[in-house]
Specification:
Layout: H1 34-58, E1 65-66, H2 69-73, E2 81-84, E3 90-99, E4 105-108, E5 117-121, E6 126-127, E7 129-132, E8 135-138, E9 144-146, E10 148-149, E11 153-154, E12 156-165, E13 176-177, H3 181-190, E14 197-201, E15 209-213, E16 219-222, E17 236-241, E18 251-258, H4 260-281, E19 284-290, H5 293-299, H6 315-328, E20 334-338, E21 342-344, H7 352-355, E22 363-366, H8 374-377, H9 388-394, E23 396-403, H10 406-418, E24 441-442, E25 445-446, H11 450-460, E26 468-471, E27 478-483, H12 490-497, E28 498-503, H13 508-566
Parallel strand pairs: 14-16, 18-19, 18-20, 22-26, 27-28
Antiparallel strand pairs: 1-14, 2-3, 3-6, 3-12, 4-5, 7-8, 8-9, 10-11, 12-17, 13-17, 15-16, 15-17, 20-23, 21-28, 22-23, 24-25
Helix pairs in contact: 1-10, 4-13, 6-10, 9-11, 10-11
Length: 571
């Protein structure tokens, strides 16, 4: 018997255009006799494709997650006290950990500040796990976070949490929804809920946050933002906590790269940029980064979908799809993808600024690509997707916001499956714009790319656009500016009016270095502005306080003078 592991290849980049691509089949297949290897490869590819198709068909029926982390959570020793309140609701008190650092806290692979960073915990996040010296080994997710820095400065503190179940809404019993997966598992354990599985669900309607299913004991976490405000629904009853949820922990940025060029660029330039943005707004950052594509698939995306390592998919599409799905499956309700060669410039603008434009959309796209020229530049409104032809011609997926819904997950898997057939002439967008720009015919990289896959799937099923929102170059600020060294006028415009700057063309490093430099200049200017406003606010309060004291002094002094006049002394 042979496995379907792929054969060793290079660093994941095509030598002609540096476009990442999947390597040839290796490992188990390399042990297959040469005469039979083609047949074996085909069988493996068919098996993987069938698995992907099955995933697309079944994702709408919830993605069930095995609760292996229940065992990990057992080390937390959370159960301390139980008691029913005046309302008759049983409440359980236990221990947890809260981030108290002013900045986001790094999640590392090992118990060392030199260990690889794989993500962040946002300020106010609540975590569970096992303390190991000055480090907390997280439950329900890989990695460690530091409890203290250099022995004195506290990064996390141990807190008491109270949990309860309710047949209504958490607010009915003076409590709040639980949005962190680890806390949900800890609450269930503390309440004595016996369950064989834990499910992070993207469906709606469901109770928002942590819940259990009466009768079956199944435990779930509903991260779909459309569920916010929902209480008990049928047999699903919320599990609540006495502390308000840290909503920032459900908003996630994803940063993914592989290969020396992009990992160096990410480490040096763009990951610090995105960490700053996440820290400013209390969001999470999820980093997926390895030296080779094969390592990235095996170590970060092995559970993206069944057979992910066995079937040849477009690399750009695969990385984006698996990065977003990884975030969905760790409890993120909103996911912001930016390319590893893109930088956030207007860091003061929260994601809510864009999400509030359309409260029903599942995906927010940028339609300010340079390829179709006037079709994109003359977009008449800040938002709205216009026609299918305009959308597929102007799409640039270098910056995308996804809401974590069943529809979004199903759509992502459809795009992954579509990426196997990008050479199909039906995918071309050339006839849909005057410039004859073809998303599937890029110079040096024909029939590749996630934009080609998205455009092709949308052409096949235009009803998908009912779930889209499109953000054009008329938004304020511009949601995404596309820039490259060949343009001599993009720098001044970026300084004033861009949320994300996405570098295309070469030399890549020079472009990214310049836009991240601008981002730090803008960040410093914003910080100085905020400090000035804060200083003015304090000076105003101090002035008002002095005037109040002066007024009180005059009133008191006048009262004493009137008292002396009305009661003269007699000698």
């Amino acid at each position: 018997m042979y496995s379907c592991q792929p054969c060793a290849s290079g660093d994941g980049f095509s030598p002609s255009d540096e476009t990442p691509h999947l390597g040839r089949q290796r490992a188990g297949l390399c042990a297959v006799p040469q005469a039979h290897r083609a047949v074996a490869s085909l069988v493996c590819a068919l098996v993987a494709l069938l698995a992907l198709s099955a995933a697309v068909a079944t994702v709408g029926r919830e993605s069930f997650r095995e609760a292996s982390s229940l065992e990990a959570a057992s080390d937390s020793r959370l159960l301390l006290t139980k008691g029913a309140g005046e309302d008759g609701v049983l409440r359980v008190t236990g221990d947890a950990w809260q981030v108290v650092s002013k900045d986001t806290l790094s999640i590392r692979l090992g118990k060392s500040f030199h260990a690889k960073v794989i993500g962040t915990k946002s300020t106010c996040s609540i975590a569970t796990g096992q303390q190991e010296g000055d480090w907390l080994k997280l439950s329900h997710e890989p990695g460690y976070v530091s409890i203290v820095f250099t022995g004195n400065y506290k990064l996390m503190k141990k807190i008491k949490m109270t949990y309860a179940k309710t047949s209504g809404n958490c607010s009915d019993i003076g409590m709040h929804p639980i949005v962190e997966p680890g806390v949900c598992l800890a609450a269930a354990k503390a309440l004595g809920i016996e369950t064989e599985g834990f499910m992070i669900t993207h469906g709606s309607p469901k109770p928002y946050g942590c819940y259990m299913v009466l009768g079956t004991g199944e435990l779930g976490l509903a991260v779909n933002p459309f569920n916010e405000g929902n209480g008990a629904m049928g047999p699903r009853v919320p599990i609540c906590a006495d502390r308000p949820p840290c909503h920032g922990s459900t908003t996630c940025l994803v940063q993914t790269s592989f290969g020396q060029l992009y990992t160096n660029m990410s480490d040096t330039l763009t990951t610090p940029n995105k960490r700053h943005y996440a820290s400013l707004h209390g969001y999470r950052l999820i980093v997926s980064q390895q030296e080779t594509l094969q390592e990235l698939i095996e170590k970060d995306f092995a559970d993206c979908f069944p057979g992910v390592g066995m079937v040849r998919l477009d690399t750009q599409t695969l990385l984006k799809i698996c990065s977003v799905l990884k975030a969905f499956r760790t409890g993120c309700g909103t996911v912001f993808w930016t390319d590893s060669d893109a930088a956030i410039l207007a860091a003061e603008v929260p994601l809510a600024h864009w999400l509030e434009i359309n409260k029903k959309a599942h995906v927010f796209w940028s339609v300010s690509d340079l390829g179709a020229e006037h079709t994109c530049f003359d977009w008449p409104t800040p938002n709205g997707c216009r026609t299918m032809g305009a959308f597929v011609s102007c799409l640039n997926a270098g910056a995308v916001i996804f809401r974590s819904t069943s529809w979004s997950e199903n759509f992502l898997l459809r795009i992954a499956a579509r990426s196997r057939f990008l050479a199909d002439p039906k995918c071309s967008t050339a006839k849909l714009n005057k410039a004859e720009f073809d998303q599937c015919g890029l110079k040096g990289a024909p029939a590749t790319g996630d934009q080609c896959a998205i455009a092709c799937e949308t052409k096949e099923d235009p009803t998908l656009m009912e779930h889209f929102e499109c953000l054009s170059s008329r938004t304020e600020p511009v949601f995404q500016s596309i820039c490259g060294p060949e343009s001599k006028t993009w720098i001044p415009k970026l300084k004033e009016n861009s949320f994300v700057a996405n570098c295309i063309g070469h030399p890549k490093w020079e472009c990214v270095k310049r836009v991240t430099g601008i981002s730090w200049m803008l960040a410093d200017a914003y910080k100085q502005k905020q400090e000035k406003l804060e200083k003015e606010r304090k000076e105003k309060l101090e002035k008002e306080h002095k005037e109040k004291l002066k007024k009180e002094h005059h009133v008191a002094h006048g009262s004493r003078r009137r008292h002396k006049v009305s009661h003269p002394s007699h000698k």
